[in-house]
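Sanity check

After download, print the first record. It should look like this:
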Amino acid sequence: MQVPPLDRDEPRFAQASKQMLETGDFVQIAFQDEPRLKKPIGIYWLQAASAGLLAPNEPTALWAYRLPSLIGVVLSVLLTAGIGRTLFKGPVGAIGAALFSLAILPGVEAHLAKTDAVLLACILAAQWGLAKAWMADHPATARGPVTTGPWTAAAFWLAIGAGVLVKGPVVVMIAGLTALTLALWHWRFAWLKALRPLWGLPLALAVIVPWFVAIHFATHGAFWDEAVGRDFLAKIDAGQERHGGPPGLYLLLVWVTFWPAAALLGFAGLGAWRGRMAPAVRFCLAWIVPSWLVFEAVATKLPHYVLPLYPALALLAGYMLVRAGQKPKRRWVAELVRAPVWIAVAVAAGLGIAMFAGPPFIGGDFNLASIAAAAGFGILAYALYRFARRAYAAPFPLGVVVLAAGLAYWSSYSQVIPGLSQLWVSSRLAAAVADHTPAACGKPARLVSVGYGEPSLVFLAGTDTALVRTEEALPLLIANPDCTLVAVEERRWPAFQEQTQAVALETLATIDGLNYSKGKRVSIRLLRLAP
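Expected structure tokens:
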């Protein structure tokens, strides 16, 4: 939770939630004066509630806005275990949950004030209800008696409603494709009656409809144009905001985003093939395959889109570890199954080297934390290397992997990454503003920024931060000279000097760093009118 706000999506969400607390408007969503209508209201309510209750006097306490995401990931790990316990016999659920919790992507999302961790929990809650209905129809293969009473149905439909309120139709797509694939695979639809759709669907609509009606009237219908036309449909048709990619991109990314559990993807595939007739395995395949194909076909691609499918991958990996099946007879198949382990070894080694040697190049220090992070990744690399050499003769070293990953992640998130000062330009600039604000102002001075306009700066420096063109800065500075500061990026400095020849300016600080959103070095001067 110590990592500064990560541009650009996270501070946009956090700032919009902060403005809800500032304005008292819990229907409309805005970033400063700009309506933010791309996503529904759910995550903003959760973040605003968390910040309002836990940090009412600290509007920029980012941990409070991130807390719903952390809770979402913790719930997702528990739900993965619950789904595994429903589907499989033995400790598959616990192993699958452990593997999922180790993956890089869930850990990243737990540290970001965005929608995806909470959406993940909603999707997994719905999938658990679906799994119970499915296994109740296959009692001979279930772990034990599976009950699907009205509480299971209510939880399923409430999860659907909450998921839509967090991020639109994604939860409907994944649960719907899972159910449809299973029904068509067996040509049986009767098992879905256990979810009580006759009263369950109205229950979900009761969660969804009130806010959608309120935002429709509040925006005079503009919400639908923005959320559906310019966001949802645009992502399908073309790569939005330069986030396009070819089909197959997620198959390339999974080796990093699902690491270190990605080491077992070959074994998961082998287990899925060998157990393809088992209802539990079929449920996981119906969960993964159709939705994965949809995400690969959609033009816009971001790594977290396939996150809701990772628990099913982890459960299949856990299933194979518990079964400990025989080595494939064909050598090429055996080597293909083992190949992901070697990829995971390479990723672990690369991360270890990056943590050991990389920080000094981007403002960090070579210290005990970087050594600890590198050691954790190094231990992981060695453990995976030994498993790769004896993959069919030795058990997967899950205990070592858990402990080493814990050391690596804790050191990275709590010390190494926050210490990369060159990356956190907005944090350093906002701190400089606070340091140079006269005591008489009563609150941090208003910041007028020329040439640097990352959303994190607005969240940290205040909602009244002005992101302006060069010629607009001086009038704002003159309007309240005692409690207004101006920040000018070096590329705009010559033009700014021309605009301010008639006044005397005093340089208070210079912030140098890397704007990672644009991949460019920046140098920013913080100034005020000279006394």
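If your output differs, re-run the checksum step. Summary of this record's structure: The two ends are 40 Å apart (CA to CA).
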